[in-house]
Design goal:
Largest sheet: 7 strands, mixed
Number of helices: 11
CATH architecture of the largest domain: 4-Layer Sandwich
CATH superfamily of the largest domain: Metallo-dependent phosphatases
Number of domains: 2
CATH class of the largest domain: Alpha Beta
Length: 389
């Protein structure tokens, strides 16, 4: 029995240590921190997670008092006990996170269906869809970065403010996020995404940021998205990856192609006889706080934000609906546990999905692309939101 307890302490410590570093990475990537510093944080994570088991083995030793040979925790040195207890405590966070994820996933089924699934390479027969993947992307088992899910999700929104009394209406909003033009997947993949989007009969098209990861692909990105502007009003905000480059040039080029920037401002559209107000936030990386709409007489108010962390601001300022991205749904979603990495102050709590609530309903997209083209159990997502209000 002592041997079992020793192994359980080691296992809890190793898992808890990994959870601790994942939390640090998630929270740090939610801040307006230069990407070189974030890369340093990720390298520390990459060293600490596999390095801790080796350090723990060195600390406890291999003698008869070792945890791995049946030694008790209190037979270890003071610092070893403290480190094992500290790291093991973080297992409780992982357990709570897993329980919440499982409960939330069951709720998601109420809001829509999985929708159409596409293997874009098989659908087009165009090898350039795959782009130029690196070694890790090529060898990752079951990598879904060249797949696409086009789904429909339904939300009922009840604005909590005075407004003209009208019969209920349904607005079809196409939500795009996190395209990350980097060369993998190729431009042909994004052209397929746009062709699919153009078939959805959207009343409004909203893009929640992270257009490019290679500035030389800006021309291709703008050209690819431009056809959508002929179908419906198209609004956008930029994201933290756009912030790394000349983001005002990115903004200018998108606007010149027919898209409207709503960062730190509000645009009002008349759609289906209803006044729709759309505000934008690129915080914490760029720009000012979104505009207050709590006293608006508009029929529906929408905040377009790159990060889901702007939810408190959306609630305080009176937005009925918030659309966000940034988290990529975790990119890798483990069985039972769910997503692990999600760059948000909320961790994985808002990694992806539709969160129906008052006063603000939130949709967080899994996005289309990624700087690191690895997807597992987390298919890239193109969503049509059918919003009743």
């Amino acid at each position: 029995m002592n041997l079992l307890y020793g192994w359980l302490w080691v296992l809890a410590s190793v898992i808890g240590n990994a959870e601790f570093w994942v939390i640090l990475v998630n929270r740090s990537h939610a801040l307006a921190v230069h990407h070189r510093r974030l890369k340093l944080m990720r390298r520390m994570h990459d060293l600490a997670v596999p390095g801790w088991p080796l350090l723990l083995l060195w600390l406890t030793g291999t003698g008869p008092d070792s945890l791995l040979r049946g030694g008790g925790l209190w037979e270890q040195s003071l610092w070893t006990r403290r480190l094992v207890l500290f790291t093991s405590l973080w297992c409780s966070t992982l357990i709570m996170q897993t329980v919440v994820w499982q409960r939330r996933q069951k709720k998601q089924a109420r809001f829509g269906s999985p929708g159409q699934q596409f293997d874009v390479f098989a659908a087009t027969g165009d090898v350039s869809v795959r782009g130029t993947p690196g070694l890790l992307a090529r060898v990752w088992p079951g990598n879904e970065y060249c797949r696409l899910e086009c789904n429909i999700k339904r939300a009922t929104v009840t604005p909590h403010r005075q407004r003209p009394q009208k019969p209920a209406a349904v607005l079809r909003i196409l939500h795009l996020s996190d395209l990350h033009f980097i060369g993998t997947p190729g431009t042909a993949y994004y052209e397929f995404v746009v062709r699919t989007a153009m078939q959805q009969q959207a009343d409004l098209i909203l893009f929640s940021g992270d257009l490019i990861d290679r500035p030389e692909l800006l021309d291709a990105a703008v050209r690819t998205l431009q056809p959508l502007t002929s179908l419906a009003p198209c609004c956008f905000v930029l994201g933290n990856h756009d912030w790394r480059y000349d983001f005002e040039e990115v903004r200018r080029r998108l606007q010149a192609s027919g898209w409207r920037s709503v960062a730190g401002s509000v645009e009002i559209f008349l759609l289906k006889g209803r006044h729709i107000a759309i505000g934008g936030s690129e915080r914490p990386w760029m720009g000012a706080e979104p505009v207050l709409v709590a006293n608006s007489l508009c029929d529906l108010t929408i905040l377009l934000s790159h990060s889901p962390d702007q939810l408190p601001a959306a609630q305080r300022l009176g937005y009925d609906l918030m659309l966000a991205g940034h988290t990529h749904g975790g990119q890798v979603v483990l069985p039972v546990v769910g997503p692990v990495f999600s760059p948000s102050r909320y961790g994985v709590a808002l990694a992806s999905g539709l969160f129906q609530g008052a006063p603000t309903t939130v949709h967080v997209s899994r996005g289309i692309g990624a700087k690191d083209p690895i997807r597992w159990n987390c298919t890239p997502e193109l969503t049509v939101l059918e919003v009743q209000f």
